[in-house]
Protein 1
Amino acid sequence: MERSVARMVNVIRGLEGARAASEAARLPASLAGCPVHDLKERLRDAGLRPTRQRVALGWLLFGRGDRHLAAETLFEEAQRARVPVSLATVYNTLNQFTQAGLLREIAVDGGRTYFDTNTSDHHHFFVEGGDTLVDIPGHDLAVTNLPEPPEGMEIARVEVVVRLRRKAS
Ligand SMILES: [Zn+2]
């Protein structure tokens, strides 16, 4: 049952994608491929109104390929780019983007949370005492023998953080 619902959602998504593509085809040439326009569309597709703050923060977040960053890092980047936002707004926006599926939240111990612009299934290396996460491509790590989930539950996702430290020399 759940699977067929998921399939239906995928079909609906596919239809929406096709509609978006045909709308894109009707756009004036100057707008098609414009990064700001594309970002606004991406926010709208995710169900978020493209407010000025969301667009400015989205621009900083998504404009540089896949990355993992803490809220404080994005806040510093916003200050450097003279985007007038508070740290609280940065947190709120990151949480909204995460809920909308544009980001993935990765909690490393110590309460440190990173936001990953790569929302596909993959795992991470984390250097202890450092502040960077590095992607492990999905196919480089296989998690097997997963426990049977409790009655009425299913496994949503498995995330592995492989912690690294320097070898003692
Ligand atoms: Zn990642």
Note: Residues 8-25 have pLDDT under 50 and may be disordered.
Protein 2
Amino acid sequence: MPPPPEIQRVPRDAVTLQPDPPLDFSDADYLNNPALSRDDVKLLREFHNAAKQELCARCNALWFDMDLKDNVCGCCRRADKSRDDNAPFLYSAANDMDRPSQY
Ligand SMILES: [Zn+2]
């Protein structure tokens, strides 16, 4: 396993805390509204990029140290170990069991 990436700490006084966007249940489309502020989304993306997450091409899972082989994670490979040749892969789009695409 490669060593963890360098982590640069930001001094606490350099961070401006912002509240999350308000949750408005009266909005019929509230589930599609952002749950994080723009700054928090930026921080989350920077974390994901720095943490070297891996993406499984079959199930769309984005996580750490997924034991990828040919861009397919260990979970998918184990789930399809005894798959019939004509059957779709278990956690695939063909089986409607893949995860939504990443943000
Ligand atoms: Zn997978």
Note: Residues 56, 58-59, 61, 72-73, 75-76, 91 surround zinc ion (CB under 6 Å).
